[in-house]
Amino acid sequence: MSSQLPPRPESCTTPWRVAIVASLYNPIWVEGLVSHFESELRLICPQAKVQIHRVPGSFELPLAVELLAASREVDAVAAFGVLLNGETAHATLVAQAVTHALLESSLKHHLPVLHEVLLVQGEAQAAARCLEADLNRGTEAARAAVRMLRTVEGLRLPHPSQNA
Question: Which residues belong to the active site?
Answer without folding.
Answer: 90
